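note to self: dont lose this again. the chain is below, predicted strucutre after it. 133 aa total, dont forget to put it in the shared folder this time
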Amino acid sequence: MIIRTHKDAEDNAIDEEKFISRRYTLRKDGMGHSLHETTIKPGQALHMWYRNHKESVICIEGRGQIEDLTEGGKWDLEPGVMYALDKNQQHILSSEKGMTVLCVFTPALVGPEDHDEQGSYPLLDDDGSVLQR
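---
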Protein backbone atom coordinates (compact mmCIF):
# COMPACT_ATOMS: atom_id res chain seq x y z
CA MET A 1 0.00 0.00 0.00
CA ILE A 2 1.17 3.50 -0.80
CA ILE A 3 0.28 6.35 1.54
CA ARG A 4 1.28 9.91 0.65
CA THR A 5 0.53 13.21 2.32
CA HIS A 6 0.24 16.66 0.81
CA LYS A 7 3.73 17.33 2.20
CA ASP A 8 5.09 14.25 0.40
CA ALA A 9 3.58 15.53 -2.86
CA GLU A 10 5.11 18.97 -2.24
CA ASP A 11 8.54 17.32 -2.24
CA ASN A 12 7.89 16.22 -5.86
CA ALA A 13 6.21 19.48 -6.93
CA ILE A 14 6.87 21.53 -10.04
CA ASP A 15 6.14 25.18 -9.19
CA GLU A 16 5.93 27.41 -12.25
CA GLU A 17 4.67 30.92 -12.92
CA LYS A 18 1.24 29.66 -14.04
CA PHE A 19 0.70 26.48 -12.02
CA ILE A 20 1.88 24.14 -9.28
CA SER A 21 1.86 20.38 -9.94
CA ARG A 22 2.09 18.23 -6.80
CA ARG A 23 2.93 14.65 -7.73
CA TYR A 24 1.43 11.97 -5.49
CA THR A 25 2.37 8.87 -7.50
CA LEU A 26 5.05 8.42 -10.14
CA ARG A 27 6.29 5.64 -12.44
CA LYS A 28 8.54 4.19 -9.72
CA ASP A 29 5.38 3.37 -7.72
CA GLY A 30 4.38 0.80 -10.37
CA MET A 31 0.75 1.88 -10.69
CA GLY A 32 0.79 2.34 -14.48
CA HIS A 33 -0.28 5.97 -14.08
CA SER A 34 0.76 9.02 -12.09
CA LEU A 35 -1.56 11.11 -9.94
CA HIS A 36 -1.09 14.88 -9.60
CA GLU A 37 -2.86 17.71 -7.82
CA THR A 38 -2.45 20.79 -9.99
CA THR A 39 -3.28 24.33 -8.97
CA ILE A 40 -3.81 26.77 -11.83
CA LYS A 41 -2.85 30.17 -10.49
CA PRO A 42 -5.35 33.05 -10.84
CA GLY A 43 -5.52 34.78 -14.22
CA GLN A 44 -3.56 32.11 -16.08
CA ALA A 45 -4.08 30.32 -19.40
CA LEU A 46 -1.91 27.28 -20.14
CA HIS A 47 -1.46 26.05 -23.71
CA MET A 48 -0.76 22.32 -23.49
CA TRP A 49 -0.38 19.39 -25.86
CA TYR A 50 0.42 16.06 -24.24
CA ARG A 51 1.69 14.25 -27.34
CA ASN A 52 3.21 11.40 -25.32
CA HIS A 53 0.58 10.95 -22.59
CA LYS A 54 -3.15 10.50 -22.06
CA GLU A 55 -4.62 12.62 -19.27
CA SER A 56 -7.84 12.54 -17.26
CA VAL A 57 -8.65 15.58 -15.12
CA ILE A 58 -11.36 16.40 -12.57
CA CYS A 59 -11.89 19.84 -11.09
CA ILE A 60 -12.06 19.77 -7.28
CA GLU A 61 -11.94 23.49 -6.42
CA GLY A 62 -12.49 26.81 -8.17
CA ARG A 63 -13.66 27.43 -11.71
CA GLY A 64 -12.05 27.55 -15.12
CA GLN A 65 -12.38 26.58 -18.75
CA ILE A 66 -10.94 24.01 -21.14
CA GLU A 67 -10.70 24.85 -24.84
CA ASP A 68 -10.01 22.00 -27.28
CA LEU A 69 -7.75 23.36 -30.04
CA THR A 70 -7.70 20.06 -31.95
CA GLU A 71 -11.37 19.13 -32.28
CA GLY A 72 -12.93 22.43 -31.23
CA GLY A 73 -15.17 23.37 -28.34
CA LYS A 74 -15.01 25.11 -24.97
CA TRP A 75 -16.32 23.81 -21.67
CA ASP A 76 -16.70 25.39 -18.26
CA LEU A 77 -15.01 23.59 -15.39
CA GLU A 78 -16.20 23.55 -11.80
CA PRO A 79 -15.96 21.02 -8.97
CA GLY A 80 -17.12 17.61 -10.18
CA VAL A 81 -16.55 18.25 -13.92
CA MET A 82 -14.08 15.88 -15.62
CA TYR A 83 -12.40 15.93 -19.02
CA ALA A 84 -10.14 13.34 -20.66
CA LEU A 85 -7.61 14.01 -23.40
CA ASP A 86 -8.19 10.70 -25.18
CA LYS A 87 -6.71 11.80 -28.52
CA ASN A 88 -3.78 13.91 -27.27
CA GLN A 89 -5.74 17.09 -28.00
CA GLN A 90 -4.00 20.44 -27.89
CA HIS A 91 -5.86 22.57 -25.39
CA ILE A 92 -5.90 25.71 -23.30
CA LEU A 93 -6.71 25.39 -19.61
CA SER A 94 -7.53 28.70 -17.96
CA SER A 95 -8.88 30.15 -14.74
CA GLU A 96 -9.54 33.75 -13.76
CA LYS A 97 -9.64 33.19 -9.99
CA GLY A 98 -7.62 29.98 -9.69
CA MET A 99 -8.57 26.33 -9.82
CA THR A 100 -7.38 23.00 -8.41
CA VAL A 101 -7.66 19.80 -10.44
CA LEU A 102 -6.64 16.16 -9.96
CA CYS A 103 -4.82 14.73 -12.99
CA VAL A 104 -4.01 11.16 -13.96
CA PHE A 105 -1.31 10.59 -16.61
CA THR A 106 -0.68 7.43 -18.61
CA PRO A 107 2.05 6.44 -19.05
CA ALA A 108 3.09 7.53 -15.58
CA LEU A 109 5.46 10.46 -15.24
CA VAL A 110 8.91 9.85 -13.79
CA GLY A 111 8.81 13.08 -11.76
CA PRO A 112 10.96 15.91 -13.14
CA GLU A 113 8.89 16.48 -16.31
CA ASP A 114 7.97 20.06 -17.11
CA HIS A 115 6.20 21.54 -20.11
CA ASP A 116 8.32 22.17 -23.19
CA GLU A 117 7.79 25.03 -25.66
CA GLN A 118 4.79 23.18 -27.18
CA GLY A 119 3.16 22.55 -23.80
CA SER A 120 4.08 18.87 -23.78
CA TYR A 121 5.90 16.58 -21.36
CA PRO A 122 8.76 14.56 -22.84
CA LEU A 123 8.55 10.80 -22.52
CA LEU A 124 11.29 9.91 -20.03
CA ASP A 125 13.07 6.68 -19.22
CA ASP A 126 13.22 5.62 -15.56
CA ASP A 127 16.59 7.34 -15.18
CA GLY A 128 15.14 10.65 -16.42
CA SER A 129 16.73 10.52 -19.89
CA VAL A 130 14.51 11.63 -22.77
CA LEU A 131 13.04 8.81 -24.88
CA GLN A 132 10.77 11.01 -26.99
CA ARG A 133 9.94 14.71 -27.15
